[in-house]
Each structure stands twice: as C-alpha cells, then as structure tokens.
C-alpha cells in the first residue's frame, strides 16, 4: 500500500501546488500591487521552493546536440540501435564519419537514477569515441506481459548489447553494473566470443563490498533478505503501464540518497530560497540543473533488486568465487585478452576505495601491461564520472587506456 499512498499524497498536493504557483506569480509580477507588499518577495520565494520540492521530475533528456571533433563542431543524433523490454541501446551518432575512433559502450547503473545521470561522462567521451549507452526503462512502465527481470537477465542484456556492437568494443561500467559487466565479460571470454570487449573500465562499484563497508553496504548486511522483500518491495499502482509489477520504488531509493547527506540538501534549498528572493538567476539555474536530474528517479524490478542485495551486497558471490549465471559458475580468470582499468574516488561514500580495485585480484590472467588502477584524490562518488576532476584528471587517463588497448 505504500506506493498507492505515495501516489495519493502527490495527487492531494496538486491543488495546493497550483494555488501557491498562482500566488507566487501575483507576488512577483511587477504590475501586480501585491508585489509591493512588505515581505512579498520572501513569500513568493517560499512558494517557489515548495513547488520545487513537491513537483514530479520526469525522465531527463541528455540534451547533447553537438560535440567538437578536431576543432570542428559536429551534430549529435540519438539513435536507438536495439530495443528490449527493460532497456534500449542508445547511440550518440555524430554527423561525421570517424572509423578510427574506438567504439565505447557505457553501461549506466540501474540503481534509481536514469542513464542521463551520466550526461557528463558521455559528453567528455564523445569527441574521441563512438559512444553508446544502456538506457534502462522505469520498471513501472514495463507491462507485466514483458516478464520478470533479474540479475541474470541484466547480464544477458549486457552480452546482447556488446554482441550487437561487435568485435573491438570497449566497455565502461559506472557504479552498480561493475559486477554484472565483469561477469558478462568473463562468460564471453570463456566462450571465446568474438565480441569479447577489447577493454573493460570499471568505475566506483562494489566488486567486493567487504572492503571498508560504506553505509549502503552496512545496511544490506544489517537486515536479512526477507526484511528487504517485506519493507522495500511494493506493487505498482494503476494507471501505470506496469500496474501490479513488484518493484523497489524510486522514491524509496531517493529517500535513502537524501538521508545520506540530509544537511547538505537542506542547505541547498535554503540557498535556493535566498537566490529566488534576491533574483540570482544563475544560482537558481545551477540548483535546478542539478536537482532536475537528482530528483528524477525510476523504479527497479523487484527480482533484480533482491538478487543484487543478496548476491552482491550480502553474500559477495563474485568476490568469493561462487557467482553463478543461469546455473553456470562465472570465472573472471578466463579473461585474458581484455585490458582492465579500475577507477575509484578517494572520498567515495557509496563504493569505498578498494571495492572496485578488487577486480584485479579476480582477473589473474590479464597481463600486468594491460591492467591499470587509478585513485582520484579528493573526489566522492559522483565526482568520479562528472565534474571538473572527471574532465581534467580521470577522462584523459581513460582515453589513453582505451587507445592503448
């Protein structure tokens, strides 16, 4: 009933949002006599913050329309290469032909936010790479007739997408997908699949969550799987297309994200109030640019969510050497010809340093000359794949690694 109650509360707030929005406009408009009342600007700003906090945030667009190749601005078109029930393979197609640029598949996390969270990652790689990304669907919009989706299905999707791109593909997995992507690569390598990735970059993910456990890791081990199933899995209500599908709702994941840095978010909205009151347009734009992305969340299929909790965060199957895919043991030692790079942030409070680097201990047959680890000083989780440190320090190393591979 929690999902239903959440939707009812949103609907109940709608009239109040409409009323405060109208009053805010009256208090701000220069031709309105109400705008001259003492405190009018502060009241209007409070209404504006209320509107931002209570509105629905839709799936954000990538809005990557151009990039620069060899000093020339070229157009970008988003092309869907392959559609599947729970994801689509998206190609950022450039208007120029550059056959020597490496094919790069970015595997976006399926952990609450949309793939557009990696906008900065894609933008930085576009000038020198032929970029594709996994664009996961919001589970509440997938009809029950599409079937279930678990961690094994995730691995199947990754293999399918890599095979779609063919040989000489380079793969970058960001955060949550490092485990299924490493498993997919190991399966392909053991099968001598010709599309086995040329290189694999794993970024800030839980290959071994036992290393310096963070708050999310501790939460997973604090409760048994039945607790997660009982408290965090709920059926999707009507009228969503996925009505009655069991999911881990995005609003619960968002609550967890916010609570990890609650004071920071409170300060951010205090700052928004002041910026609105003082008509600081640029500060308002920057705030909304971040939170329009951060507050847009998606539901996760329940089977996938519970599989991940149990096999990755509670029992550490991959790190312990007992990870199974459809009854078959996954063997990272089978990876020999794929170059491996791991990337971590020194201040990462979601996947602490060491958790991703553990991949090197599993992939024992990759030659030392084809493996690399990078720890970025002074950055947290999101700073690893977005922001100035990503652009100036991490991305150049990743580009060099891919070229050398």
From TrEMBL:
Transmembrane segments: none annotated. Residues 205-404 form the PHB de-polymerase C-terminal domain. SUPFAM superfamilies: alpha/beta-Hydrolases. NCBIfam families: PHB_depoly_PhaZ (TIGR01849). This is Polyhydroxyalkanoate depolymerase. It comes from Marinobacter adhaerens. The lineage of its organism: Bacteria, Pseudomonadati, Pseudomonadota, Gammaproteobacteria, Pseudomonadales. The gene is phaZ.
């Amino acid at each position: 009933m929690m999902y239903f109650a959440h939707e009812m509360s949103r609907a109940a707030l709608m009239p109040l949002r409409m009323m405060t929005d109208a009053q805010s406009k009256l208090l701000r408009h220069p031709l309105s006599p109400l705008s001259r009342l003492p405190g009018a600007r502060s009241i209007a700003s409070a209404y504006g913050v209320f509107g931002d906090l209570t509105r629905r945030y839709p799936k954000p667009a990538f809005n990557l329309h151009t990039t620069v190749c060899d000093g020339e601005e070229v157009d970008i078109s988003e092309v869907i290469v392959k559609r599947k029930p729970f994801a689509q393979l998206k190609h950022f197609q450039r208007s120029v032909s550059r056959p020597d640029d490496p094919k790069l598949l970015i595997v976006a996390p399926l952990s609450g936010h949309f793939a557009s969270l990696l906008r900065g990652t894609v933008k930085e790689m576009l000038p020198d790479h032929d970029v594709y990304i996994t664009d996961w669907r919001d589970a509440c919009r997938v009809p029950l007739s599409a079937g279930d989706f678990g961690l094994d299905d995730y691995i199947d999707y990754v293999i399918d997408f890599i095979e779609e791109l063919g040989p000489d593909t380079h793969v970058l997995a960001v955060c949550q997908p490092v485990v299924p992507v490493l498993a997919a690569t190991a399966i392909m390598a053991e099968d001598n699949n010709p599309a086995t990735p040329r290189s694999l970059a794993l970024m800030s993910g839980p290959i071994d969550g036992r290393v310096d456990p963070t708050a999310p890791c501790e939460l997973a081990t604090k409760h048994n799987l039945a607790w997660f199933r009982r408290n965090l899995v709920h059926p999707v209500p009507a009228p969503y297309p996925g009505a009655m599908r069991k999911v881990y709702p995005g609003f619960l994941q968002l609550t967890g994200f916010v609570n990890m840095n609650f004071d920071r978010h409170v300060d951010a909205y205090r700052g928004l109030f002041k910026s609105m009151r003082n008509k600081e347009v640029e500060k308002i734009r920057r705030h909304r640019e971040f939170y329009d992305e951060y507050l847009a969340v998606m539901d996760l299929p329940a089977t996938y969510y519970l599989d991940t909790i149990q096999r990755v965060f509670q029992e550490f199957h991959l790190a312990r050497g007992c990870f199974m895919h459809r009854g078959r043991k996954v063997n990272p030692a089978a990876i020999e010809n794929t170059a491996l790079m791991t990337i971590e942030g020194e201040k990462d409070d979601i996947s602490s340093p060491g958790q991703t680097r553990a991949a090197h201990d599993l992939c024992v047959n990759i030659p030392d000359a084809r493996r690399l680890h990078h720890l970025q000083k002074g950055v947290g989780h999101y700073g690893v794949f977005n922001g100035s440190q990503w652009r100036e320090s991490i991305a150049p190393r990743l580009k060099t690694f891919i070229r050398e591979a």
